[in-house]
Amino acid sequence: MGQDGERTSWFVAVDLYDILFGLRTGISTRWFLKREETKTLRKAESAQYALSNLFEAKARLVSLISEAGLYKLILKSRKKEAQKFQNWLARDVIPKYLAEISANHI
Fold this sequence. Notes:
This protein is α+β, with helices and mostly antiparallel strands. The protein has a domain at 3-76. It is 46% helix and 13% strand. It contains four helices and three strands, in the order E-H-E-H-E-H-H. The protein has helices at 13-21, 43-46, 67-76, 80-105; strands at 10-12, 38-42, 61-66. Strands 1-3-2 form a three-stranded antiparallel beta sheet. The longest helix is centred in the last third of the chain and has 26 residues, at 80-105. It is globular.
């Protein structure tokens, strides 16, 4: 659960790094993600959640990133696929959202 009891989707951090930056290590998210946008899951705890398949063979910990954290990482990426999402957000979503807010408050 996320803040205010909302359901939050979580993503395996190393997979996101690989997809968005072409790296599996060496990325520090602590500078731009809030603490509640990340979590670490221990292998011993994962059995109760049936998530043991997230762990590589000898890994004892797996880092997870929330949906909000995913969007922040996408905005940091320079990959072509991420730039398509960035452009869609900047050209379509945000202008429509701002226009809707403006129309509803006038």
